[in-house]
Write a structure and sequence with these properties.
The chain contains three helices and seven strands. The protein has about 170 residues and is an alpha+beta fold. A hairpin with a 5-residue loop joins strand 6 and strand 7. The structure holds ligand K1U and zinc ion (ZN).
């Protein structure tokens, strides 16, 4: 089932999500819904707070080329345990700020640990778009958006655009 993606500004996007203690069937169903919502958007990642659930759960699939085998990843309690000194700049977007993009600098390579839907601990090194995306999604779990990396003026400009968009959408 597709879920509604919250749009910035929304207080739920600014809150830290709580660790998942027990991976229940309900949380597994939520992760399925999040993958369906992400693919439909379309996007390459989604964090539970973006659908209004303040649990530490993200999904991602950065296989972009049509015809390539998809690689959906579901991560409960993801953590970056090591980051490279080298950085990478990527023009990021966010499904909670549609059609707005900005360059963000982040570590180029990250080691991430998480629990999979069966409760098994996982660890992997990510680079390229996967590294950018997993960091963007973990930021969502900490109430941080990509615009928080920008200069205040640019951030305010993007927030104003979003307030206007939300007003227009509410008017119908
Ligand atoms: O978290 C989100 O809002 C999803 C976001 C993830 C992301 C994008 C770019 C850099 C870092 C993280 C998106 O998926 S925005 C849409 C997007 O980037 C995309 C959509 C279709 C094809 C390819 C990319
Ligand atoms: Zn986002």
């Amino acid at each position: 089932m597709k879920r509604t993606i919250l749009l910035h500004p929304d207080p739920r996007l600014k809150k830290a999500a709580k660790p998942v203690e027990d991976i229940t069937d309900e949380l597994r169903a939520l992760s399925d819904d999040m993958l369906a919502t992400m693919y439909d958007a379309p996007g390459i990642g989604l964090a539970a707070p973006q659908v209004g659930v303040l649990d530490r759960l993200i999904v991602l699939d950065c296989v972009k080329k049509e015809g390539d085998t998809p690689r959906p990843l579901v991560m409960f309690n993801p953590e970056v345990i090591a980051s490279s000194e080298e950085t990478n700049v990527y023009e990021e977007g966010c499904l909670s700020l549609p059609d707005l993009f900005a360059d963000v600098t982040r570590p180029e390579i990250v080691d991430v640990t998480w629990m999979d839907p069966d409760g098994r601990p996982q660890q992997e090194t990510f680079d390229g778009l996967w590294a950018t995306c997993v960091q963007h999604e973990i930021d969502h779990l900490n109430g941080k958006l990509f615009i928080d990396y920008l200069k205040p003026l640019k951030r305010q400009m993007m927030t104003r655009k979003m307030v206007k968009l939300k007003r227009e959408l509410a008017r119908g």
